[in-house]
Design a protein that fits this description.
The chain has about 230 residues and is of the alpha/beta class. The protein has eight helices and seven strands. Helix 3 packs parallel to helix 4. About 35% of the residues are buried.
Length: about 230
């Protein structure tokens, strides 16, 4: 795993966080019991660059937490085109999902985080591009009638494989799934008989994806491990 010195060096030589993400990073560490669940500077920058490279029309995030990764990806998406100038009164503003352009749907199970997530979406100027859903992802995903260009999984570990199997049929050929925490603090290499349910969920997911002939995959040992999966 990366040493703390190398991690800090990498952060220091990476483009600084946008101000909205720097504030959210600090707020999360001050207000949350497990702030390490936040994607953070390096991973956020990577996610933003991946979005900038892929130029996806539809992105799904499973596990919003305080909104850091959603904002990081949203900032990498192209802004929707401005409506043409007109002397006529503007019609009522449509909902985000009714507008044209790229959209990111993000799902968070904890309703207590909703107000804060919506606030930071507004602060980032992403109301037109980020659609927040509150509830169980297992229940919400089937109701999203989209073909995904990119899916980011960072939620409850025992359900990783369930989420993967739910979304893969709706990922376009050549599209990507990114899964966080796939090294799980190194626990994935331990004795299976001593693994807790979270570790077992990650191990099961990693093994299944690696053997899945519908995709190709790569594990990056950045932070707690990111698996990048490309649908064939």
């Amino acid at each position: 795993m990366m040493t703390e010195i190398l991690f800090k060096y990498s952060e220091a030589h990476t483009t600084p966080e946008p101000a909205v993400l720097a504030r959210l990073n600090r707020e999360t560490h001050l207000s949350q019991v497990y702030p390490q669940m936040l994607s953070g500077h390096l991973q956020g920058a990577l996610l933003r660059m991946i979005v900038q490279m892929l130029c996806p029309e539809r992105v799904l995030e499973i596990g919003t937490f305080t909104g850091y990764s959603a904002i990081a990806m949203g900032l990498g998406m192209p802004s929707p085109p401005a409506p043409p100038a007109s002397g006529m009164p503007s019609p009522p503003a449509p909902l985000p999902q009714e507008r044209g352009g790229a959209l990111l749907h993000t799902i968070e199970v904890n309703p207590e985080l909703e107000d804060g997530i919506r606030r930071v979406i507004r602060e980032a100027g992403l109301e037109d591009q980020v659609v927040l859903h509150i509830g169980q992802a297992i229940d919400i995903i089937p109701g999203l009638d989209e073909m995904w260009d990119l899916v980011f999984i960072d939620a409850d570990k025992p359900n990783y494989l369930n989420y993967y199997n739910m979304v893969l049929p709706k990922v376009r050929p050549g599209g990507f799934i990114i899964a966080d925490n796939v090294l799980w603090d190194g626990k994935v290499t331990g004795d299976p008989a001593k693994m807790d349910k979270d570790t077992l969920g990650i191990v099961e997911f990693n093994k299944f994806v690696h053997q899945d002939e519908r995709v190709e995959n790569l594990i990056l040992p950045i932070r707690d491990g990111l698996m990048i999966i490309r649908k064939l």
